[in-house]
């Protein structure tokens, strides 16, 4: 059986799906904040490309957090995007120091994206087991986006190919 937003008749399943959604919302909001931190403070020879890349990814992550929050509300929950909730519940690494070199910033963001993508894939499986194809699909699209973002960040670690 596939559940839609108005068809949750099993309260434990609904509560479980909402808990999963809220956890992913907290991580997504934290990731957005870390990307903005990187965007504002990046320095070095690749400044402009990284500055723009972090901002582009932050915009896409912000849109992803909005989708998760709206899904929570559509399923009858209350989305909690407060900073205190995000800080308490995020599973991402603590984040960036104010002054770090480009390599360190890239490694920190890549690590956060890796953890985020893994959590999304786990959420895909859990929500599919609960029969919530809509939420599973939401997480699937966000997983693809997280993989793309990680690829864009990791491309800066690659050594140039010699011809």
Helix count equals 5
Task: Output the CATH homologous superfamily.
Answer: Ferritin, core subunit, four-helix bundle
| Largest sheet composition | none
On the 0-100 scale, what is the average pLDDT? 89
**Any idea what the CATH architecture is?**
Up-down Bundle
Helical content (DSSP H or I, runs of 4+): over 70%
Radius of gyration: 17 Å
Shape field: elongated
CATH topology: Ferritin
Q: Unreliable runs, pLDDT <50, ≥5 residues?
A: 1-6
Distance between the termini: 55 Å
User: What's the CATH class label?
Assistant: Mainly Alpha
Condensed summary:
With 163 residues, the protein is mostly helical. It has helices at residues 11-41, 47-74, 83-89, 102-129, 133-154.
Kindly describe this structure.
By secondary structure, the chain is an all-alpha fold. The chain has helices at residues 11-41, 47-74, 83-89, 102-129, 133-154. The protein has a single domain (11-154), classed as Ferritin, core subunit, four-helix bundle (Ferritin), CATH 1.20.1260. 71% of the residues lie in helices and 0% in strands. α1 (11-41) runs antiparallel to α2 (47-74), α1 crosses α3 (83-89) and α2 (47-74) packs antiparallel against α5. Mean pLDDT is 89; it is low at 1-6.
């Amino acid at each position: 059986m596939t559940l839609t937003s108005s068809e949750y008749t099993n309260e434990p399943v609904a509560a479980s799906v909402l808990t999963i959604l809220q956890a992913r919302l907290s991580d997504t909001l934290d990731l957005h904040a870390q990307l903005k931190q990187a965007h504002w403070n990046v320095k070095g020879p690749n400044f402009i490309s990284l500055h723009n890349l972090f901002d582009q990814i932050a915009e896409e992550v912000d849109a992803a957090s909005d989708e998760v929050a709206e899904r929570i509300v559509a399923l009858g929950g209350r989305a909690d995007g407060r900073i205190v909730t995000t800080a308490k519940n995020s599973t991402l690494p603590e984040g960036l120091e104010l002054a770090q070199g480009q390599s360190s910033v890239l490694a920190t963001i890549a690590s956060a994206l890796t953890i985020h993508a893994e959590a999304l894939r786990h959420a895909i499986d859990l929500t599919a087991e609960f029969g919530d194809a809509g939420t599973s699909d939401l997480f699937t699209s966000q997983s693809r986006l997280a993989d793309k973002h990680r690829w864009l960040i990791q491309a800066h670690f690659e050594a140039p190919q010699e011809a």
